[in-house]
Amino acid sequence: MMNTLSHSSEVEESNEENNASDRDLLSCLLWNKLEGDPNELLQKSCDPLEQPKTCDYHKGAYGCYRFAYSNTGPGAQACYDKNGNFISDPWKGGGTVDQETLSGDLIQLAKHVACDVVPYYSCCQTFFSLQPYTCNLYYEKRLIGQCENKTAI
Fold first, then answer.
1. Distance between CA atoms of residues 25 and 36, nearest Å
2. How would you write the chain as a 3-class SS string?
3. What InterPro entries does the record point to (predicted)?
4. What is the mean pLDDT of each run of 10 residues along the chain (153 residues)?
């Protein structure tokens, strides 16, 4: 009887993980389909950048700059390695354009989370691993900013 209960709970946990994974996949695919042209974000996102901040979210980057023209709307993160070289590959720590900048008030933060952070986690993070296919769908819509000519301070 004890083995049956143990096995039953393991099956339930496995089913819950699969259901969460399926929801993330569907959420990612829907988001990708509904998201607009990422080139519009590129045109509005990269200009002189402020002080670099360490990047916990861009593994491989030594520092990232965040820029936005205003407290609402698109923004960008440009990330650099230890030598000050711009990172143009998101898989190596490159920053991306954002639909909604992180700058601004609490409402703007919520917009950033809904438009940029939740899609990232739906497409790229499934429990403890990256999902290359769906993460590439995310990077199709959140391109690396064109900040190559900007130098790190």
1. 19
2. CHHHHHHHHHHHHHHHHHHHHHHHHHHHHHHHHHCCCHHHHHHHHCCCCCCCECCCCCCCCCEEEEEECCCCCCEEEEEECCCCCECCCHHHCCCEEECCCCCCCHHHHHHHHHHHHHHHHHHHEECCEECHHHHHHHHHHCCECCCCCCCCC
3. AMOP_dom
4. 46 48 79 79 50 65 82 85 88 89 86 92 75 88 69 43
85 half-sphere exposure, CB direction, 13 A CA radius: 8
Edge-first strand listing for the sheet containing 97-98: 63-68, 75-80, 97-98
Query: Which residue(s) pair with 77 in the sheet?
Result: 66
Q: What is the pLDDT of residue 153?
A: 39
Neighbour-count burial of 37, counting CB atoms closer than 10 A to its CB (0-12 exposed, 13-18 middle, 19+ buried): exposed
Which pLDDT score, from 0 to 100, does residue 55 have?
60
Tokens 């901040």, residue located: 53
CA 20, CA 15: separation in Å to the nearest integer? 9
Q: What is the pLDDT of residues 16-59, one digit of tens each?
A: 455 556 767 888 888 888 887 777 765 554 444 444 555 666 78
